[in-house]
Structure formats: C-alpha cells, structure tokens
Amino acid sequence: MPPVRIAVLMTSHNRQEKTLAALAALAEQRGLPEDTTVRTYLVDAGSTDGTPEAIRAAHPEVQVTTVGPDIYWSHGMRIASRNSRRSGEPAWDYQLWLNDDVTLDGDALTVLLGTAHAVGPGNVVVGAVRASADDRTTYSGRRGRALALVEPTGRPERCDTYNGNVVLLPRAVCERVGDIDEVFQHGIGDYDHGFRVRQAGIAAYVTPCHVGICDRNPPHTGSREPGIGVREALRRITSQRELPPRQWWVYCLRHGWPRAPLLMFSPYVKTAARASFRRFPAGR
C-alpha cells in the first residue's frame, strides 16, 4: 500500500483515562506504509477533569479545540472535520471517525486501509469493535430494517449504515456526502450519514475482523434507569443525549417513510410504558 494521509476526528468529555488510552493506541499503530501521516483533530466539550491539559501534555501532536459542554458528539465531529480542512496541512486521503472510548488494536489502521484497498476506491470502511469482557461485537455496520449489527466474518461485509465509533471515509466520499448533517447534535447523525452514503450510490463495508475494544454503555441508564417515573423517563429520552423529537422526526422522514409517523412516536410510547411498568409492577 502506498503512504496515505489520515485525518482522525475525535470528541471528548470528562473521560480522561479512556481518551488518553484511545490516543495512546492510535499512536502505537504498526504495519503502516512508510511515510504514512496520521493527524488527530480532537474537540473537547468543556471537560472539567483535566482532559484537554492531559492530552496536550501526553500527545502534543494532537490539535485540541476546547468548546462548551453544550457541544455534543455530532456537532463536535463537524467542528473537528472543519478544523482538519483548515489546518494548513496537505490534503488528507481519508478521514477516520474515532470515538474516545475505543482502544484500537495495534494493526487496526492497517486492517482498515487493507479493507479499503480490497473493496475498491471510494467506498466507506466501518471498523467493528468488541467488548473487553467477552469479545462480542458491540458496534459495527448496521443492516436491514432492524439495523442489526453486522458481524465480522473474515471478509469485508456490506452494510446499510453504521455506528460512528470507527469509520474510515475516503476524501471523495467526504466531498460528495459532506459531514454529519448539522440538524443532528449528538446521536442519530452517524446512522443518517450512513444512509446518505448509500443513497449517493456509495458502498460501506465492515472490516473482516474486529479492530479494537469499545464497551457498550451501561444498559439501565438514561431513560431506561429503573424507578425514575414516566415524566423523568420522557424528559431523558427527549434530551440531546437520546432522541430529541425534532431531530428524530427528520431522521424518520428521511429514512423511515412511509412508516415515519409510527417510528416517530414508537420510542416515546415504549419509554413511557416501560417506566410505568417498572414503577407499578404487576400485583402491587
């Protein structure tokens, strides 16, 4: 493989230990072609645990931009992308979306670039990641109406959209499809981007193997926390961290028609029902 230039886009917020681990793993990548250049553009959303200072001390090569705590993942990734274009560096060949809680395997970039070479130029490569405890796939490409996880099979596998944890985007895709849509502030933006890639006639493939570790968020948090009541559950699910109604409606209209009205209300109804059931269990 010829040498390439990769712009790594990251966001962080109060996860100093994990963020430093992610950056350390990125810095220790092996097997890359000589003269390959990796530049990281990280947006920190108002961390109060010293994350920006720790990054600057341990990884002075990383460009750190500090913004307010009201900047969530999708917005932060747009800022990081903008910064990569305005950096004055020579034009990059790929953008790599990388979550700050992903610890890449030592050959992850080699696997991603090798997959990109295997599936042909101009296609997206999604890195599947696994849980630290049992190696089960946690985030990957998604497929079908149920958005099922696409498991690594030893060869590149097509997917319909993707989680944004590890995604390699060729320059041509970025120029054609653009960044995560500005309507999305936190979640949903990665799924929307993947569907827009597909609608543009561009294929996305999952890597043949896992490329790192990324544990799922705890299952009973946010709107799923037991005992919080219907009002609090609905407040949480409609917040920026979960499914803000306007952003969810845009997503449903774009990618769920003609089922958009049903899809729109379904998660909120399910959340209210779940909270009611947990607060007032049967027989009490």
Q: TL;DR?
A:
This protein has 284 residues and is an alpha/beta fold. It is 36% helix and 20% strand.
Architecture overview:
The chain folds into two domains: 5-213, Alpha-Beta Complex (Spore Coat Polysaccharide Biosynthesis Protein SpsA, Chain A), CATH 3.90.550; 222-279, no CATH class. The longest helix has 20 residues, at 260-279. Helix 7 (230-237) packs antiparallel against helix 9 (260-279) and helix 8 (245-255) packs across helix 9. The protein is an alpha/beta fold and 284 residues long. It has helices spanning 16-27, 51-58, 73-85, 108-119, 171-177, 189-199, 230-237, 245-255, 260-279; strands at 5-12, 37-45, 63-67, 94-98, 103-104, 124-126, 129-130, 137-139, 141-143, 148-149, 157-159, 161-162, 166-170, 204-206, 212-213. A hairpin with a 4-residue loop joins strand 9 and strand 10 (148-149). The strands form four sheets. Strands 3-2-1-4-13-6-14-11 form an eight-stranded mixed β-sheet, with helices on both faces. The chain has a three-stranded antiparallel β-sheet with strand order 10-9-12. The model has no long low-confidence stretch (mean pLDDT 94).
